[in-house]
């Protein structure tokens, strides 16, 4: 029986993970389930899956969670520290699916177990890739990518020599606005941006898909996780989201990973790894699909991609600044305080300010990452106020 913890259990990835686990109740023992504001869902799943502990990140929701779980035998806790403590409890497999940089420290705590971390939380790699990977090495932990493109790359690389890799290409759906004229983007609302053409995901990553900040983060994630230079990584727009990534080798061969856009593919692969077991996902019918199309991902129309390249080349703490500023700019857009294109302008301004000060060249410690994360959010507010 495999022991599992799910960080971010109430979200889109968390619920897809629970869907897979709940289909084989005898195969899994659930250690920790964590959530944020949705304590109703957290309590229901903790009770149903007989979790050892349920934790909400919100201290103010402790009493409600405790009341909902009364008599269940599930231990209850609340707050960011309790969440880190629960993540550090021994489990064979932990899903890291908290949204944003809030997922970094719980992920690091899980790595401390020396077991397997299934990593959906791409922000961890963007903010602190070298730190995460070195902690995993030290603890003897394994990180398995869950982001669909990175799972695809990982699968294409099985048995391959990294020295033979010439190029890695990830695909982007183009998001909600891929067919909008550029001039209209300033009128885009958060509700419009939060409608994905192919994938069903949380609100924040869906808006990041529309701005291509999701793809920008994934370029950085590819660079950090697979150790490939930015010059050998790119993104192409692929409106069908059937091909997830392609790895080109020095002999001219290209291995592509295809699958219906359903995250249970990538989650299931990480859950069953190194085995490849049956999954309850729709099957591809290429004849019915008839064609797969690709277009250039224009870095002028999508400044997030250009900024990602700057971050990959600068290294150090620039990923933490990029992510912190992006997360804050996204809050401001969702609140209706800035326009859609202003998000990228704010991230660029914050990166310029912090790199000019030399502060992004410091050593990567968790304290330094936290400090840059906080400062970049404050600077994003200042940049928004100046506009
Ligand atoms: N959704 C997808 O298909 C994909 C997602 N990813 C990545 O996976 C991660 C999760 O995405 P997704 O599932 O869409 O996100 P959701 O918004 O659907 O879920 C986020 C989860 O994190 C919890 N949460 C929110 N804020 C905090 C916090 N401050 N501290 C602790 N927990 C918190 C939420 O709790 P609550 O809802 O209870 O408030 C919820 O459980 C992200 O990093 C995303 O980039 C990667 C590839 C695909
Ligand atoms: C499912 C997944 O991995 C998402 O990160 C996906 O990539 C989002 O789609 P976009 O290609 O629109 O960013
Ligand atoms: Mn992805």
From TrEMBL:
Catalytic activity: 2-C-methyl-D-erythritol 4-phosphate + NADP(+) = 1-deoxy-D-xylulose 5-phosphate + NADPH + H(+)
Single Gene Ontology MF annotation: manganese ion binding
Required co-factors: Mg(2+); Mn(2+)
Residues annotated as binding NADPH: 10-13, 36-38, 121, 123, 202
Entry's EC annotation: 1.1.1.267
Pfam families according to UniProt: DXP_redisom_C (PF08436), DXP_reductoisom (PF02670), DXPR_C (PF13288)
1-deoxy-D-xylulose 5-phosphate reductoisomerase C-terminal domain mapped to chain residues: 143-226
NCBIfam families: Dxr
Family listed: Belongs to the DXR family.
Function of the protein: Catalyzes the NADPH-dependent rearrangement and reduction of 1-deoxy-D-xylulose-5-phosphate (DXP) to 2-C-methyl-D-erythritol 4-phosphate (MEP).
Name under which the protein is recorded: 1-deoxy-D-xylulose 5-phosphate reductoisomerase
Organism this protein belongs to: Fulvimarina endophytica
